[in-house]
Structure prediction request, 307 residues.
Amino acid sequence: MTNDINTLATALYVKIDDLLKAAPDLAPWRPEIGFTPRLSDAELVTLSVMQALLGFTSEARWLRHAHEHLTHLFRYLPKQPGYNKRLRDAAALIKNVIRALSVDTTLWTDDVWVIDSTPVECGRSKETVRRSDLAGWAEYGYCASHSRYFWGLRLHLVATLGGLPVGFALTGAKADERETLLDIFRADPHLVADRPEQTLIGDKNYFGAAFETRIAEAGLRLLRPTRKGETTTRPGTRLFKPLRQTIESINQTLKGQLDLERHGGKTPAGVTVRVLQRLLALTAAIWHNEVPGPLRTVTPDRAVTEI
Prediction:
């Protein structure tokens, strides 16, 4: 990210606030009669993105830091239980914000996507595995890229060569990568409907005649390395080594800079929103680096003020 994080927070808040004014149904449901939240939904999502970008994996420590250093941006900051509950309720909103930011970048129209999955570890001890609320969804799996076994989930990611998340899914560690990719496209048919001849680049796990037929029927072109035992060399072989580093660098950004595997979630809802939080942080950084010119003026009724 090349721009100041306070400037990013301001721009992101304005974008989300405008999105919610144009489509108020995207906001988390709350009863018509009751207290009005002192921290708006736009502020909540902005606060969560700043947490991910600044590397705070503990919500309690993050809120202590925010109380000390960010009161000039947020008029009100909740306590940790309220922040945690509201963030889990905002998972659908975060997904919509990811898409809204993605389509607002030049990378959205790229005609080449990279596809891969990466582990999201959720526990190591046998006692954690036995007692965790994630049992039944999280499971044991193997990561060939890092030669290790793990207990947890897998994040399946479709991204541009510039690292912009286009589609994603969170599954058990043993879920078939091919079926999950097809499920991503089935869940969002508009993603590929207007992209004839879109190119997908994946590793050797994306194979099989039936799978490649379904990919072709969707109007997509699949490039992958030649598997052992295949008699013909597949096209694009010389491209795979550098492009493999591209998808690995995207995964490393999520893990090394955004602490994907230090999410701290202990329930399905908790893990889901923390993964979404990091995907939004990555998307927001890419989006903000393309924001041209000075920021628009923020009116006095908006809590996040212009920097």
About this structure: The two ends are 17 Å apart (CA to CA). The chain has two domains: 1-105+263-307, 110-257. Residues 74 and 159 are 32 Å apart (CA to CA). Residues 110-257 form a domain with the Nucleotidyltransferase; domain 5 fold (CATH 3.30.420).
